[in-house]
């Protein structure tokens, strides 16, 4: 699906106004960032870059698009003619997908003609906000599962086909191992997972007949849903009978799935029954409205669950369903010179960070694989120790300090340049692996699911000074 028309009307209204009043080649740079972490966490997992890059690289308006815009009777003929001829002229810098990103850090920076860059806002935010939200929720659940496989089961509860498909992609970036969604599985080369629903069991005269029929059709995929009637009185005993029959025929069962009831106690008793029957390797899968806190609680209680199937609370991020990423102008080119810009607000939290920036992850030279902070700097700055920095958190009391004895690694990379093929990773499991490596570098306290420690993010003194100068300038202009 082409997304050039997934744009709010006001974007076109502004673009038409820019065309009428400003030089058509006026250049601008916009940053995508967020201010608050969902679920009171400490970071977000960046996701959605592949789709953004692919859409921007092929960005253009069809005849049908232009005819529709013309029918609105709001735009000049010259502007519509301009739109009909343009192709992407923008450059994209971004954090690699899977990167843990902290509040106020640029996830993506888009530069190019002001008119074009402005028109990209809505669909870029739509993609980045959604996939980053689901990848983050997935990471939380996978973190709680302590290495146990998580299967994404949420397609039927997602807010539409795209949310189901791209949400499954994001869920894998966040750590999931498979999906039940065949559209996502085929499109993104994700292992497909799933066996039966209760309807299968209900379609046969009794539970045992249903299990036997399944084993006959799928002798190497005998994973049985045991909670249609009674998990311990019929489900598990009938599963064991079928497992024994399968073993006698040379097939080993996969295991059972519990989808209702007191999953912790049922799993404990089911594990005992399976072990006593000679099936210690038969796996127990849990599903049914699970999230990170339920998963952690089950495991804390000692529930012998081998893997989880998680649907609605993952694919919708139901506990915190919005990532409020924003798209803000950071600088403009005027008469051949780049001028930093800023949005000033009564709320200090909403003041933007101006200019062309780079984000650095800071590592102690004493522990080179452990990140200790991030630093947002102007792109032309040299980041060397000692470095004076200012806390980027506007509510911080200990605002400034000096960093010493560190190595700085830049995070923002160029993924698209106008006229050049896009360079972006498309293998979701390679992205997942990159994410795991970067997450392993963060302090453990910042990865707690409840009350995580705040990971430090700083501005360089030069960038902080620029921000203050522009705030003062804007306030002075407003007063006069």
Number of helices: 16
Overall structural class, as computed from helix and strand content, comes to: alpha/beta
CATH topology of the domain at 9-133 and 321-352 and 412-446: nicotinate phosphoribosyltransferase
> Mean pLDDT, rounded to whole units?
95
Contiguous low-pLDDT stretches (5 residues minimum) are: none
Q: Share of helix among residues?
A: 25-40%
Under the CATH scheme, the architecture of the domain at 9-133 and 321-352 and 412-446 is Alpha-Beta Barrel
The level-1 CATH class of the domain at 9-133 and 321-352 and 412-446: Alpha Beta
- Identify the quaternary structure here: single chain
Radius of gyration: 26 Å
Give the biggest beta sheet. 6 strands, antiparallel
Strand order of the largest sheet: 13-12-1-5-3-19
- Can you tell me the CATH superfamily of the domain at 9-133 and 321-352 and 412-446? nicotinate phosphoribosyltransferase
Measure the end-to-end span. 49 Å
Strand content: 15-25%
What is the count of β-strands?
A: 20
What overall geometry do the principal axes of the alpha carbons give? globular
Catalytic activity: 5-phospho-alpha-D-ribose 1-diphosphate + nicotinate + ATP + H2O = nicotinate beta-D-ribonucleotide + ADP + phosphate + diphosphate
Domain Nicotinate phosphoribosyltransferase C-terminal: 356-466
GO cellular component, one term: cytosol
Keywords: Ligase, Phosphoprotein, Pyridine nucleotide biosynthesis, Transferase
């Amino acid at each position: 699906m082409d997304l050039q028309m997934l744009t709010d009307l006001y974007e076109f209204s502004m673009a038409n106004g820019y065309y009428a009043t400003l030089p058509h080649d006026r250049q601008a740079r916009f940053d995508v960032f967020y201010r608050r972490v969902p679920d009171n966490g400490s970071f977000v997992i960046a996701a959605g870059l592949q789709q953004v890059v692919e859409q921007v690289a092929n960005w253009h308006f069809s005849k049908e698009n232009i005819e529709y815009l013309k029918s609105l009777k709001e735009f000049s003929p010259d502007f519509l003619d301009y739109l009909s001829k343009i192709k992407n002229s923008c450059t994209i810098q971004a954090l690699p997908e899977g990167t843990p990103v902290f509040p106020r850090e640029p996830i993506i920076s888009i530069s190019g003609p002001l008119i074009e860059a402005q028109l990209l806002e809505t669909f870029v935010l739509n993609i980045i906000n959604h996939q980053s939200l689901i990848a983050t929720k997935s990471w939380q659940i996978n973190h709680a599962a302590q290495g146990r496989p998580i299967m994404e089961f949420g397609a039927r509860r997602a807010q539409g086909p795209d949310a189901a498909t791209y949400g499954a992609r994001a869920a894998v970036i966040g750590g999931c191992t498979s999906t039940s969604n065949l559209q996502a599985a085929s499109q993104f080369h994700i292992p497909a997972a799933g066996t039966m629903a209760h309807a299968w069991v209900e379609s046969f005269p009794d539970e045992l007949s249903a299990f036997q029929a399944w084993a006959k059709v799928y002798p190497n995929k005998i994973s049985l849903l045991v909670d249609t009637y009674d998990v311990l009185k019929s489900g598990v005993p009938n599963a064991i009978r079928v497992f024994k029959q399968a073993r006698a025929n040379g097939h080993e069962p996969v295991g059972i799935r519990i989808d209702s009831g007191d999953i912790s106690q049922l799993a404990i008793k089911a594990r005992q029954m399976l072990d006593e029957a000679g099936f210690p390797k038969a796996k127990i899968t849990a599903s049914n409205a699970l999230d990170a806190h339920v998963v952690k609680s089950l495991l804390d209680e000692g529930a012998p669950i081998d893997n989880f199937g998680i649907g609605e609370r993952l694919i919708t991020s139901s506990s915190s369903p919005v990532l409020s990423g924003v798209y803000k102008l950071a600088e403009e080119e005027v008469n051949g010179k780049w001028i930093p810009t800023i949005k000033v607000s009564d709320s200090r939290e909403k003041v933007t960070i101006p200019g062309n920036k780079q984000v650095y992850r800071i590592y102690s030279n004493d522990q080179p694989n452990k990140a200790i902070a991030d630093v947002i700097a102007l792109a032309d700055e040299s980041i060397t120790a000692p470095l004076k920095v200012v806390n980027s958190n506007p509510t911080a009391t200990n605002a400034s300090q000096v960093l010493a004895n560190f190595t700085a690694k830049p995070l923002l990379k160029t993924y698209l340049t106008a006229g050049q093929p896009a360079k972006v990773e498309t293998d979701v499991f390679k992205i997942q692996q990159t994410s795991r490596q970067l997450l392993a570098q963060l302090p453990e306290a910042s990865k707690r699911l409840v009350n995580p420690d705040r990971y430090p993010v700083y501005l360089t003194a030069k960038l902080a000074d620029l921000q203050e100068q522009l705030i003062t300038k804007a306030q002075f202009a407003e007063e006069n």
